[in-house]
Amino acid sequence: MKKRIIWKLVVSALIIAWSVMSLVPVSDIDFAEYLEKEVSANYSEFQVLLDEAKTIISEDKNVNSVYVALSQLVAEQKLDLRKFFPHINLRDIKNIERSNEILLKHLLATSRGKIKKGLDLQGGVSFTLQVDESAIADKQSYELQKQLSKAIDIMEKRVNGLGVSEPVIRAVGDSRIEIQIPGLSVRENPQVIDAVKKPARLEFRLVHRDRTPPATAESMAGADIPPAGFEKLLMEREDHKTGEIQYIPYYVKRVPEATGEIVARSVPTMDETGGFKINMQFTDEGSDRFAKITGMIAAENRRREQETGAANPGQLAIVLDGILHSAPTVRDEIRGGGAEISGDFTQREAIELSNVLNNPLAVELAVAEMYEVGPSLAEDARDASIRAALLGGSLVMIFMVAYYGLGGIVSVISVAINLVILLGVLASFGATMTLPGVAGVVLTIGMAVDANILIFERIREELRAGKNTINALRGGYEKALSTIVDANVTTLITSMILIWMGSGPIKGFGVTLAVGIGGTLFCSLIVSRLILEVLVEGLKVNRILGFTLLGNTTFDFMKFRIPAFLVSWSIVLIGFGHLIYSHDHVFGIDFVGGDELTVEFQEKIAMSDFQAVAQAENAGEVSAVYQTLIGDNKSIIKIQTEIGQGNRYFDALHAAFPDAGLKLIGENTIGASVSKDIQRQAVLSVLVALMGILLYVALRFEVGYGVGAVISLVHDLFMTLGIFVFVGGQFTAPMIAAVLMVIGYSINDTIVIFDRIREELGLRPGMSLYDVIKLSINATLGRSILTSFTTFISALALYIFGAGVITDFAFIFMTGIITGTFSSIFIASPIFYWWHKGDRKHVEERELLPKYEWQSSSKAAD
């Protein structure tokens, strides 16, 4: 076997094996069963412990998980779980309680499926934080709203810092914040909830220099009276040798010298001795404030040293919500915008203290209610959409095999491997799969099929030119290489900008798309070629492609460029005008907020029935989820409607289901879950992506190509949105991903035609620019039709057989497929032609690359 085949085989096998391993386990494993398989010592003793945990679950209604039951048992019996799992190295942690906590969390995490699902797919936990009313009693309305908005921003950063993807965070009423975290069980992950609900009022306070509290108040009755203006606080520390928890008392000033607003960022780092420290960066104002505080302490240090001859440096305490976390010594004035906290920290302690310093809040918060929530995408809608996706994928596979024969089978294998690699990479860094992520997967599959069709059509051209199968295979891949790379790189630019500038669903889509592009390039250029080379060169297969319906066409699309241009932009203007006219009804609850009803019930209502009532009453967008109050297992329904529709919708729902025992127990006004920042980031990301595409295409091709590509993208964007709104569509959070998907698909289609125009300009020096564009469009027509057809099949299946928001998602994508194909032929190519005034020499004069090749071919033509 040839070396070039061997290295491809080895690399492919390693990547596929790693991807499969990253996906295992695909779904959650029952925790008790997982523990029984994972235990590696003292089996019989652990089985007794596990049986006791199961007994607790059956007898105590407040304990419904093995995780919680085991946590209670090991705490009561003072057991060290490490003796059952010696293969998990936690020997450096001396404290048994903490090692048990870390071990159980690790085992729970490893028992969970590697593909995590978001709130819309699997539900999670929802809790509402209430602003302390006494702290805001004297606040003006605008001040309160400003603080609440700041708190929401901080909560977003804090939740994202915990590694939780795609949370929902929004205002509820005037003084509450609702946080929904996907895939989370409070009973099994109480520490995550504690970290998020923590008010985090960060303060820097002075420590009393001369007095230290006694070790215990009991041993010195009456002596534990703090000095005036100070209070006693205890700092918890773990003895790194014995694992015992120690409490060090300090007298700390009640009035803070500064709050957490002075800290811009803090990062735990390793010091020169292998220990850990925290580096803080201050805001501009914070830097000046911290310099004044430390300067004051340093001046007092010098005064005391001059008077007594002994150094007695002061301390500045770091206090979070009244809890003393650290009291570092201050010896000199600290300037320069940063400071360092050193001490005998473990890595975990350094990380925890760093988290304390980041994202402080100016208002105190408390947990008002906490629920476990069901998926926002109804189970029946989700299942229907999954079946529709499988149907669409199956139809594409059948078509590829029927049309391309053996090559179609290779394509199906390549796309399947691409999907495994994509999911494996996402699973490896703990990504959460939500509807925007699904959009990225769908676009990846479409681009992967497109790459294979492009290669096969190139191979078909080589066969028509009289080459044998081996040379046609090589020539097809060589000529398709630049087109595939250019098409994917332009989409990659978009995805990287979305990752860089976006957040939430925008960033999730960008990450999925970026990973998918890498998999597409690898599978289309390495894996599929490897399989075909083995078939053709190793097994001597002579026929790898099936029949063709499209031969050499000579349609003069350019002849219709002006009427097509006028008609299409007229549709864009009409749609855009309708978008402006109907802007009050275009944006859904995710963007503008709405009414939220809390409803008690006696009998459950099917999720699909909520939307059916909304449609019957013309109530607009409605979403409903079942929630279970943590603590007493009380279930309610949270219903979200458009602003002003809440009571009317509840009356209609109550009339439709009189036996369900519906009772309205609460009503609130909720804010947008897609914050203004995310909306601005989405728009800005798209604009920067367009500029990035223009720059890349201008450098890789020529400026006229870039202008044509960007204008066609803008055309597709506005036409798709206009049509969607015109037929009564409404924008929700998942629609952001659908719009981004249209951009990715459209630029991919345009680049294919532009790459062929560039190629033909070099091959046919005597042909006019008009004829070169006409020839290039016809040469790529088969690929454009086939790619659009296969992608449209998948989207159509989702539209017909899907449910819920999936149908809107599919409609936008179908519209984008049609507009993207149309604009590549009738918008992008004519714009390029007009930009160069119909003169091919004008193209060469504005190229940013050397001109000698064009000059040489021009002379030959003369």
Structural summary, described in words:
The two termini are 49 Å apart. The chain has an eight-stranded antiparallel sheet. The radius of gyration is 32 Å and the shape is globular. β11 and β12 (323-326) form a beta hairpin. It is built from 28 helices and 20 strands. Mean pLDDT is 78; it is low at 217-222 and 848-862. α12 (406-428) runs antiparallel to α13 (435-464), α13 (435-464) runs antiparallel to α14 (469-501) and α21 (676-700) runs antiparallel to α22. It is of the alpha+beta class and 862 residues long. The protein has five domains: 29-111, no CATH class; 117-199, 2-Layer Sandwich (Alpha-Beta Plaits), CATH 3.30.70.3220; 202-360, Gyrase A, domain 2 (2-Layer Sandwich), CATH 3.30.1360; 379-542 and 553-580 and 677-849, no CATH class; 594-669, Alpha-Beta Plaits, CATH 3.30.70.260.
Structure keywords:
5 domains; Alpha-Beta Plaits; eight-stranded antiparallel beta sheet; Gyrase A, domain 2; 862 residues; globular
Please state the oligomeric state of the protein chains shown. single chain
What is the helix tally? Answer: 28
Distance between the termini: 49 Å
Name the poorly predicted regions. 217-222, 848-862
Strand order of the largest sheet: 3-4-2-15-18-19-17-20
Summarize the biggest pleated sheet. Answer: 8 strands, antiparallel
Q: Cα-atom Rg, whole angstroms?
A: 32 Å
Structural class: alpha+beta
Find the count of extended strands (DSSP E, 2+ residues). Answer: 20
Helix residue percentage: 55-70%
**Cα shape:** globular
Number of domains: 5
Return the average pLDDT rounded to an integer.
78
